[in-house]
Design a protein that fits this description.
heterodimer; A: 241 residues; mainly alpha; Fumarate Reductase Cytochrome B subunit; two-stranded antiparallel ribbon; 4 strands; B: 255 residues; alpha+beta; Sulfite Oxidase, Chain A, domain 2; five-stranded mixed beta sheet; five-stranded antiparallel beta sheet; 20% strand; transmembrane helix (chain B); transmembrane (chain B); DMSO/TMAO reductase YedYZ molybdopterin-dependent catalytic subunit (chain B); membrane (chain B)
Chain lengths: 241, 255
């Protein structure tokens, strides 16, 4: 029998979906800025494995010669990004939702089991609850990363007035690298997130828009094994609704 | 199906419909808002130009916010001399055209107001106390380089020529002798103790490409404000024209 189970609060859904386009605009406008001095690569022993970014990339996404525009968008949407993130964190603190979000001691061990299960190496799953161990780590990490983007962003935006933030970030040059690396992190997160959401299916996806999940529950608690045979339910004092 | 399953089923449908409809409407509104912003008209060319009107407004508001954090006591980090680059980067030559410019005849024009103007020679400026700075020069493009400059601090220059009255105004404007490159600076940034009218780089007189004979070094701003080959310095309560602010960049461009 179908039961509605509340899963995601309105505040969580709201901030999640507001963040999505804002982060997209921040990444896009960030690329417009990065193009003007796009020097990063992954190079080991003189061999460049990845260049950020090859010319075709800038060309394909029309990212060239748009620095002023990129800065104008970036330094407007940073406000929305910060405020929205702040509201989400505030909500988790006030509601106590952080208890289901922050990794527990056991999460780091369990997360491996989740990964092994998702890669079809292991059959059984550790307890899922609202967020499983891997989700706790991933979703906490992404909030920490968002905070990191704000801090490293400030470090390169106002390195004189906020010199202590720049110092904390390891200096101007390193802060810029961190700021960039975090962005690459978002993109990787996004790819995995989308795959996981597709695999998790409709019920899960709907919960991030409508807030609830639909569960199959026995009409009478404790009689799971016969839930498909309602005729066998003999206890008339079972729940009425 | 009994009555109960029916209501649960209805509930699911109803709540899903409301949620997804709201989601669709808000997504549409967000997309519409984005289209509006992206296609919003460019500002009319004035002191600033070429930015979308709402984005220029946002830049100016953001400036007001971050000005709260500005302090003349926040000094730019300085470095030992041996960290300074020997090959100092040249990014732009706008305003440094050879035509019509004779370094021997160069004079600095200081306009206290439209009618109150005086002129200085290089000897006058060299006679003032010399200050050097080795700091990390930052370009709006994203690169930075540790560079070594020397000259007279702008506050020393102001004190020597008794321009305190002029510094009560809001802005300082500087432009090249041919007026092709020009910057506007808020007074607080101009009066920052590390703002220098520089005539030496790496202990040698400035080369032409670095703005000989006199250039601005203002570490609290991006490189675009560090005007080369100063021709005129002026004071005003209105924003003076600014070359890159006319090309869509933030007027303040403060670090």
């Amino acid at each position: 029998m179908k039961v509605i189970k509340e899963k995601h609060a309105l505040a969580m859904r709201w901030t999640h979906w507001v963040n999505f386009p804002i982060l997209a605009i921040m990444i896009w406008s960030g690329l417009l800025i990065y193009w003007a001095h796009g020097v990063y690569s992954i190079t080991l022993f003189g061999h460049t494995f990845v260049k950020f970014f090859p010319d075709w990339f800038y060309q394909f996404f029309n990212l060239r010669r748009r620095l002023a525009e990129g800065m104008a968008f970036h330094f407007l949407f940073m406000w929305f990004f910060a405020v929205n993130g702040f509201l989400y964190v505030l909500y988790t603190i006030i509601s106590g939702a952080w208890r289901e979000l922050i990794p527990k001691k056991s999460s780091f061990k369990e997360a491996w089991l989740v990964v092994l299960h998702d890669l079809h190496i292991r059959k059984t799953l550790p307890p899922q609850n609202k967020y499983n161990a891997a989700q706790r780590i991933a979703y906490t990490a992404i909030i920490v990363m968002g905070f990191g983007s704000l801090v490293t962003g400030l470090a390169i935006y106002k390195p004189v007035q906020f010199y202590w933030i720049t110092w904390l970030c390891g200096g101007y040059g390193f802060a810029r690298i961190l700021h960039f690396a975090l962005t690459i992190g978002y993109v990787l997160f996004f790819v995995i997130h989308i795959v996981q959401v597709i695999l998790a299916g409709w019920n899960n996806f709907r919960s991030v828009i409508a807030g609830f999940e639909v569960l199959q529950e026995p009409a009478v608690p404790g009689l799971e094994q016969i839930q498909d045979e309602p005729n066998l339910i003999t206890d008339p004092s079972g729940p009425k609704d | 199906m009994d009555q109960k399953t029916n209501t649960v089923e209805q509930k699911i449908k109803r709540r899903s419909f409301i949620s997804f409809a709201t989601f669709a409407v808000l997504s549409g509104a967000a997309f519409g808002g984005w289209k509006w912003l992206y296609n919003s008209p460019k500002e009319e060319a004035g002191i600033t130009a070429r930015a979308r009107v709402p984005l220029r407004k946002a830049m100016n508001k953001t400036e007001v916010f971050f000005r709260n954090f500005f302090s003349g006591n926040h000094l730019v980090k300085t470095y030992p001399k041996d960290r300074a680059a020997q090959k100092v980067r040249v990014n732009s030559m706008i305003g440094l055209e050879k035509e019509g410019f004779n370094p021997e005849e160069w004079e600095l024009t200081v306009a206290k107001s439209k009618d109150d103007v005086f002129k200085l020679k290089m000897e006058d400026i060299r006679a003032l106390p010399k200050t050097e700075i080795i700091f990390d020069f930052k370009c709006v493009e994203g690169w930075d380089q540790i560079q070594h400059w020397a000259g007279v601090r702008f506050i020393d220059f102001i004190a020597h020529y008794q321009l305190e009255n002029e510094t009560r105004m809001q802005y300082v404007g500087m432009k090249t002798p041919n007026s092709k490159y020009y910057v506007g600076l808020d007074m607080a940034s101009a009066l920052h103790p590390q703002t220098i009218l520089a005539y030496e780089m790496n202990d040698k007189p400035l080369t032409s490409e670095h703005g000989a004979p006199l250039r601005l070094i203002i570490p609290v701003k991006y490189g675009i404000k560090n005007l080369k080959r100063i021709g005129t310095i002026s004071f005003s309560d209105k924003r003076p024209g600014d070359f890159w602010a006319r090309h869509g960049y933030d007027y303040y461009s403060g670090l």
